[in-house]
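Open question from group meeting: does this chain pack into something compact, or does most of it stay loose? Before anyone orders reagents, we agreed to write out a predicted structure and look at it together. Recording both the input and the output here so the notebook holds the full record.
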Amino acid sequence: MRLLLVLALAFLIYAHQTMGMSTLEETSWEVRVGRTPFFPFAPKDTLSFGRGRFVSARFLADGYSPSGYGPAAGGDWHARQKSSDGGVMEWRGKVSGDRIRGTVTVTRADGAAKIYKFRGRRRGV
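Structure tokens returned:
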């Protein structure tokens, strides 16, 4: 029985590291979120990953709660946040070294959706 527990724990650690989530865990990223033509003027945000949770500081203030995050195809990551008014934000991103980029789809409670891009770099690097 003890051997099974040790093997299960070893598998979970291996799976966690090979899925790429260990590179995000306990990191924060300074990003800009906006439409492509006006990207240099886009609002700033801080994305944080810790204890298996994803938080957008800017959108937390707008009522979007922290959520879990996970791997997506090709080594990317994704997260889905919900707001208190029924809106949903779908984050999809890719990390390359100290850089992060991706898209966020904001769907309001009435079903209207907008797609934005984000990009930035790791805090403290």
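Observations to bring back to the group:
Helices lie at 2-18, 57-60.
The first strand starts at residue 27 and ends at 34.
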